[in-house]
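Below is our example:
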Amino acid sequence: MPLVVFCGLPYSGKSRRVEELRAALAAEGRVVQVVDDAAVLGAEDATVYGDSAREKALRGALRAAVERRLSRQDVVILDSLNYIKGFRYELYCLARAARTPLCLVYCVRPGSLNGGLRVAGAVDNPNQNVSVSWRPRAEEGGRPLAVGTDVLGEPQAVASVVNRRAQAEVPTESEPKETRATDCPALVASESEKSAEHVSGAFYPPELLEALALRFEAPDSRNRWDRPLFTLVGLEEPLPLAEIRAALFENRAPPPHQSTQSQPLASGSFLHQLDQVTSQVLAGLMEAQKSAVPGDLLKLPGTTEHLRFTRPLTMAELSRLRRQFISYTKMHPNNENLPQLANMFLQYLSQSLH
């Protein structure tokens, strides 16, 4: 059954959207299995994303858990950051190998549609002193606000760009908020996060959030492994259940690679007969062109069709075409084509020479 991959930075509402989709599909009588970081680690731990070795092991465990659950009966939902496009391609390959459809749901906080924190003007003027943060900085010292502030619910705090000019525009109310936050270590969620049914319990430090935002690789619907792509901005936007259902249960599965497919059964004498038939056709063609003039239709042994003679052909040219035909036919062996091998080779010569 289909695979649903959720993608997005922390605090973007992925877990709530997963719960919404799971409840909607379960109400239809479908079996839904959810794979997330907590299911693999035993408990959600944000520090994994600060250690490249542990994060790599986590991705491997998530991929293995998804592969074990992919079947023709269950819907598998992967709830994780999935911010690396190479990892999303691996998930696409799993779905393709299992011959099941998949879709990608991209959760974005308001104000960060580009997925990561992209600073306007930073590319045009690299010498400009620009500081990027998920949380506004205090006016004095540029120190990030404490954990207990409620800035997570502010849409403008998602992708705030703070430089020398922007620091002067920080509201004065941020200073008393910081004073109150130092005495409250608990994380205070915004109104939209409070309404979520399942909110991540892991705390992501501001430095880790900034690092994740900078290395985030946003999905692109032009990539085959990122489509069909559904982008959800904020928690107020309704989940497109009808479109997701159509993508999961009405679309065809990605076509498998030809190199990963088992070759059809062929008799042990298939290659021998292929070599013998093509050799006879070449020998008959070399003999027939000795007395032919351009425009004649040549009748060759073992064939029911004719070859129009246009110019004298050398044995080296015909041998090269014969090797190409044999290489292609070996990739698609079929005993049903044995009586037609001579005609097939003649058609290949006619198309290659004219």
Q: What stands out?
A: The first helix runs from residue 14 to 27. The radius of gyration is 31 Å. Residues 114-199 have pLDDT under 50 and may be disordered.
